[in-house]
Every structure is written in structure tokens, then in C-alpha cells.
Amino acid sequence: MRGIRARVLRICDMTVDTDALVRPDGPGSGGAKTVIPCWAMLIEHPEGLVLFDTGERTCEDGSSGRERLVEQLALCGVSPEHVRLVILSHLHHDHAGNLDLFPDADVVVQRRELEVAQAEVAAGTPGSIYRREEISGAVRWRVIDGEREILPGIRLIPAPGHTEGLQAMLLDLERPMLVTSDACYTARNFGPPARLPGLYRDASETLRSVERLRGIAGRSGAFVMFGHDSEQFSRMRLAPVPYE
């Protein structure tokens, strides 16, 4: 669709176990670590500014992901109050950590994702990656069920497995862009064949979602942007340079 531009906002880096990205078939990497990117995406749309994910609130080096997001938006000539719509792939803290910067924006999330996150926070579930401060404030939730073209040229696609309600996004740019978020951490997960990550809620749903996304990419000719692929991210255009 003409008039859509997407800018990738680098928030911070995170250090994770290498085996958390792609589940090993054998003994694993022996505790090796990998540095991965945490990012958000600003979408300039004829109907207003859209933000896909909001990144981590506090980076592991102690710096403020919140300040970093504001700085990245400023590179694009934008302030948080200019954003009219926030789309959350899912509600883990490295994707929804700065949601309170956008109190006047509608926040689009899959119903199942919000239900599970709120239940875990209410129950104090041990080891949960959902944080109360991200999902319990005065948020203008716009809850959806299933696949939806949320604005012309922005299609949201359920891709459960990593979480129950994760959603990917297909952008109608000159070359379409399929943003997998954590439905597919890296190109190795995408395959073929699809490979499980180390962290997921449902293995079979994870693999089905990857296969579905691969089919969408094949039919649309889309460029596929993965959730935390450091090699791919090193080659990406970063804000303020757009994809259009």
C-alpha cells in the first residue's frame, strides 16, 4: 500500500543462552551465550502513526530502554504522544516494557494473550515472563480475536506457540515485510525444516505457526524479519532510514 513506511528502532541488546534460541538436537552448546537485539518498529501510515512492540524498560547494562525508545522515536521526528496505535506481538517484558509511554494510544493485542498474561500476574505464577507493571495500568486495550487487517496494509496474524496469543504482522510495503516477532527467533528456527526454540508454551503450535508463516512468506514474496536474529539485525536498515 502506498504511503506506508516502517522504521526499525533499536532499543538494546540482551544476553541469552545460545540454546534458548534454537533447541539443540544433541548435548547443546555447553552454556554458551549469544547477544540478541531488542527492538520496536515505527510504522508511518496514512491514518496515523503505529508502533509495533515497545521494547524492554530496563536494559541489562542498567541503561533505560524507555529513554532509548524516546530517543529512537525522536530520530524519526516523533514523540510518544504522536503514536495513535500500539500493536503488541505479545506481552513479554522485552516487547511490552514501555507501554506506559503511550497512555492515549489504543493497544492492540490478541484476546488469548491478554487473558493468560493477566491470569499469571494475578496468580503470581513463578517464573512468569509477564510483569504486572506492563499490563495492569490504565491501558486502552483493543482486543482482537484471530487474523485481522487492523489498518489497510497492516495485517495481524495469530502465531501461537511461544505464547498462547502471539501475533505476527504482514506489512504491505513495496516488498511486503513479514514480522514474526518471537514466533520465530531466527532464520534457523524458520528453516526449512522448522526448529523449536528453547522457550515455548506449546511445541506443536510453535511448529505449526512457523510453517504457516513460511507459507505466507512464500505466497506474498515477503521479506521475513525475525524476532531476535542478531546476524540478520546487523544487516537491517535502522532508524531513521525507512523500509517503504
Brief overview, please?
The protein has 244 residues and is α/β, with parallel strands linked by helices.
The counted number of beta strands is 11
Sequence stretches where pLDDT stays below 50 over 5 or more residues = none
Q: What distance lies between the first and last C-alpha atoms, to the nearest angstrom?
A: 9 Å
Helix content: 25-40%
Mean pLDDT: 94
Secondary-structure-based class equals alpha/beta
Shape: globular
Q: Strand sequence of the main sheet, in spatial order?
A: 1-2-3-4-5-6
Largest sheet: 6 strands, mixed
* Total of DSSP H or I helical runs spanning 4+ residues: 8
Topology order in helix (H) and strand (E) letters: EHEEHEHEHHEEEEEHHEH
Q: C-alpha Rg, in Å?
A: 17 Å
How is the quaternary structure best described? single chain
Description:
- The chain is α/β, with parallel strands linked by helices and 244 residues long.
- It contains eight helices and eleven strands.
- A hairpin with a 2-residue loop joins strand 2 and strand 3.
- It is globular.
- The N and C termini lie close together (9 Å).
Question: Which properties best describe this structure?
Answer:
6-stranded mixed β-sheet; alpha/beta; 8 helices; 244 residues; single chain; globular; 11 strands
Task: Please specify the SSE layout and strand pairing.
Layout: E1 5-17, H1 18-21, E2 33-45, E3 48-52, H2 65-75, E4 83-87, H3 93-96, E5 106-110, H4 111-123, H5 132-135, E6 140-144, E7 148-151, E8 154-158, E9 167-171, E10 177-181, H6 187-190, H7 203-220, E11 223-226, H8 230-233
Parallel strand pairs: 3-4, 4-5, 5-6, 10-11
Antiparallel strand pairs: 1-2, 2-3, 7-8, 8-9, 9-10
